[in-house]
Amino acid sequence: MILQKPPPTLETERLVLLPWKMEYAEDMLLFAANENVANARNVKPITNIKNAKAKIKGYIDRNIDDWAIALKTKSGNKIVGSIGLYKHAKSWKEFNKYNLSFNLVYLIAEEYWGMGICTEAAKKVMHYAFVGIKCDALGANHTNKNNRSRRVIEKCGFIKISREHDENPNATVKYCISKEDYFSLYT
Fold it and tell me: Averaging pLDDT over each range in 3-12, 58-67, 74-83, 136-145, which range is the top one?
């Protein structure tokens, strides 16, 4: 599996998925500094330009494909989130038997929640993963408290592979989709 450096620009009807560049740091702050957005993904908010640039540098330097999610507008592209493919966590034993290549990870500005943007971006990245770089399977996860992310994952056809941990709102619920399941759903 060969990842492109930088990853290719991907497009849908409403979106452009752009490889991260340092000049997008201020755009990142518009969504990543929001505590609700950070809490939805169980990460710390990015609250200053220095940290935003460090995060983008990490995207550029690491062997991952990560994109800025941009809405197509009449005045140009407006960055509203982030989506990427990350090497799956080897500690997730449930994932190992699925021969997962990557986990799908995303964040979107709060004002765009519920508009189908993450689902649209996720489906485009899934196509890239299964067709472009020929992954065997993808993983995704959310915390119990994050029903929006659960809906995105389920709308994309992922299957739950771990049980929810009862009352713990921060427990991680894990999903996967195989190449075969992807092709049966989308071709």
Answer: 74-83
**pTM score, whole prediction:** 0.89
The residue segments making up the domain with residue 127 are: 10-186
Tokens of 52: 């935003």
* pLDDT tens per residue across span 121-139: 999 999 999 999 999 899 9
Report the number of distinct structural domains present in the chain: 1
Is residue 22 in some structural domain?
yes
Q: What is the chain written as a DSSP string?
A: ----SSPPPEE-SSEEEEE--GGGHHHHHHHHT-HHHHHHHT-----SHHHHHHHHHHHHHSS-EEEEEEEEETTEEEEEEEEEEEEPPTT-HHHHTTT--EEEEEEE-GGGTTSSHHHHHHHHHHHIIIIIS--SEEEEEEETT-HHHHHHHHHTT-EE-S---TT-TT-EEEEEEEHHHHHHHH-
